[in-house]
């Protein structure tokens, strides 16, 4: 499905999810689920002056959904909301439209192979769609 280097990264993030905790003082808390696979996540964002100063998640489900959300938290932490919106757009376009990203998505490219497996795309994009909704609430 995905080459072994990328597979190892995904398994590592599944077994040892990064930023897997609750943020009590979160600016936005957003839940997302993918009933097709049984994936569930809750995303916590703490935003100050247009910047995501902290981000975390809790959840359960398949390796792709949890690893993707773990990678998400690593990617967006410390970034400006506007920059994050751009990354979210590029990531979703890569997986849902097979579009070549125009910004460097770094480790997120580990999930690119998922685009060839439509049933798993919803797993990989769950956290990102949830993030998109959360950012809309911030405005
Ligand atoms: Zn899944």
Please summarize what this structure is:
With 139 residues, the protein is α+β, with helices and mostly antiparallel strands. Helix content is 45%, strand content 19%.
SSE topology:
Layout: H1 4-15, E1 28-34, E2 39-48, E3 51-60, H2 63-76, H3 81-96, H4 118-138
Antiparallel strand pairs: 1-2, 2-3
Helix pairs in contact: 1-2, 2-4, 3-4
The structure holds zinc ion (ZN).
Zinc ion is lined by residues 34, 37, 39, 61-62, 64-65, 123.
Give an overview of the whole structure.
This protein is α+β, with helices and mostly antiparallel strands and 139 residues long. The chain has one domain: Sufe protein. Chain: A (Alpha-Beta Complex). The protein is 45% helix and 19% strand. The chain is built from 4 helices and 3 strands, in the order αβββααα. It has helices at residues 4-15, 63-76, 81-96, 118-138; strands at 28-34, 39-48, 51-60. A 3-stranded antiparallel beta sheet has the order 1-2-3, covered by helices on one side. Helix 1 (4-15) crosses helix 2 (63-76). It binds zinc ion. Residues 34, 37, 39, 61-62, 64-65, 123 line the site of zinc ion. Zinc ion (ZN) binds at residues 34, 37, 39, 61-62, 64-65, 123.
